[in-house]
Design a protein that fits this description.
The protein is of the alpha/beta class. Helix content is about 45%, strand content about 20%. It has one domain: Rossmann fold (3-Layer(aba) Sandwich), CATH 3.40.50.300. A hairpin with a 5-residue loop joins β5 and β6. The protein starts with a helix and ends with a helix. It binds guanosine-5'-monophosphate (5GP).
Length: about 220
């Protein structure tokens, strides 16, 4: 029996976990922690036309492409979703990257905004699970942004206005988690992952298994 149960675990459709949070909430650190502790979770590496930042690695953080290469991918319908940022750079999620995981029962985590989420939900409504992370307070968020020491006060004020604007979209997410304690937040999100993985529609191997159980119950 344990062999059957083991096989069932592998006959599952992967889940697409879209996580969003206002900048400064700790989304990047959280995603890294989840990836480190959950071997069935993979990161969807997006394509971008923005220049590589210091410390970033091609193929790990993003696939960095030229505008012409990006255009070619659009023409080939290679993207699940794509977005143009207000800063002029473009981002996109590759179908090939995501499907290669989902089809073999591996789950994928995405770092994308509500514009991307809407497109993903349209293309794969049964596979997408979305989580919105809220900071415990705006005071705390401002403190964290200022603590980074990378931006001027003017830039921070602009970011705060943008955050308020984007936050309106929290109602479009399946789950909302307030990120008070970072470790607790990781645990809470892991629990969401566990529950979503157990959903009947995702356990595609169950049909065969339950049929066998019913046959055995009827015929011994
Ligand atoms: P950054 O350039 O700072 O890495 O990312 C800027 C924004 O683009 C972030 O809010 C991030 O969530 C979003 N982003 C990154 N990759 C994608 C993607 O493939 N699709 C969408 N829709 N947004 C993305």
């Amino acid at each position: 029996m344990s062999e059957v149960i083991q096989r069932l675990k592998t006959v599952r459709r992967g889940v697409m976990f879209v996580i969003e949070a206002p900048s400064g909430t700790g989304k990047t650190t959280l995603i890294k922690k989840l990836l480190a502790q959950d071997e069935n979770l993979k990161f969807s590496v997006s394509v971008t036309t923005r220049p590589k930042r210091e410390g970033e690695v091609d193929g790990v953080d993003y696939y960095y492409v030229t505008d012409a290469e990006y255009d070619k991918l659009v023409k080939e319908d290679a993207f699940y979703e794509k977005v143009d940022s207000q800063y002029g750079s473009r981002y996109g999620t590759l179908r090939s990257e995501v499907d290669s995981f989902i089809n073999v029962g591996q789950d994928v985590v995405f770092d994308m905004d509500w514009v991307g989420l809407r497109q993903m939900k349209e293309k794969a409504p049964n596979d997408v699970v979305s989580i919105y992370m809220l900071p415990p307070s705006i005071k705390e968020l401002r403190k964290r942004l200022e603590g980074r020491n990378t931006d001027s006060q003017e830039v921070i004020d602009k970011r705060m206005a943008l955050i308020a604007d984007k936050m309106q979209h929290w109602v479009e997410y399946d789950y909302v988690v307030i990120c008070d304690d970072p470790d607790q937040t990781v645990d809470t999100i892991q629990q969401i992952f566990s529950a979503e993985r157990m959903k009947r529609v995702r356990q595609i191997g169950l049909k065969e298994f339950t049929q066998k159980l019913m046959d055995e119950a009827l015929h011994g």
